[in-house]
Amino acid sequence: MPKVSRLFLLFAVLAMGLAACGGSDTPAAAPTTAPTTAPTEEVAPTEVPTEEVVPTEDVTEEATQEVSVEEVVGDPAIGQELFNEFRAEVNFACATCHYPDKEEQLVGPGMLGLGERAATRVEGLSATEYLRNSILHPSDYVVENFPDLLMPQVYADLFTEEQINNLIAYLKTL
Ligand code: HEC
Q: What is the domain range of residue 116?
């Protein structure tokens, strides 16, 4: 009986030893090489995209600028002043011909609600685009029941781009 148990013990120790050897060898080798090489390899690709982020940001900024030009970053308060300012070149202020706070006709159409109406005037033109065009090229779209060429055609020469944007920003608040 003691012989058997000793043999068994030997077996057990051997088995454990083998298991320990095999067990420790395999898991130790696998994780050590795998994670070490894997992250190291990944470092390179990570650095490349990080560098590429720079041009991506540039593109985003450009896009944002385009949008802001499109959306018009004008000052409505300055636009209101321009709207009411007498211009000797045309002998009128905008306000001479347009009520800012009514829809009724003065000489030209009233501007009340124009901020919303503008987007529906010409298919394919946003409110901003329509308003810009109405000031710079009034004959492109003549408001129904109003005569063409009554609105002065010279505002493209009188106003700077910034002033036009301010006027548009103001008209959109009406
Ligand atoms: C002499 C009168 C007169 C003056 C001054 C005038 N307009 Fe007009 N405007 C008109 C008339 C008339 C129309 C309608 C006929 C047309 O569409 O051209 C009109 C149309 C418009 C429209 C389109 C309105 C709509 O309901 O779609 C806008 C916007 C506009 N004017 C802005 C301005 C601004 C801004 C100024 C000043 C910088 C100005 N107008 C000065 C007579 C005038």
A: 76-171
Query: Is the model's pTM score more than 0.70?
Result: no
128 CA from centroid of ligand 1 (Å):
15
Q: Which of 51-60, 97-106, 138-147 has the lowest mean pLDDT?
A: 51-60
Same domain membership, residue 83 and residue 122: yes
pLDDT of residue 73: 87
To which residue do tokens 């390179």 refer?
44
Q: What is the tally of structural domains in the chain? A: 2
Residue nearest to atom 43 of ligand 1 (CA): 151
> Do residues 144 and 109 lie in contact, with contact meaning Cβ atoms separated by under 8 Å?
no
Q: Is 156 helix (H, G, I), strand (E, B) or coil?
A: helix
**Closest-lying ligand 1 atom to the alpha carbon of residue 82:** 38
Q: How far is the CA of 49 from the centre of ligand 1 (A)?
A: 52
Answer for the pair 146, 108: CB distance below 8 angstroms, yes or no. yes
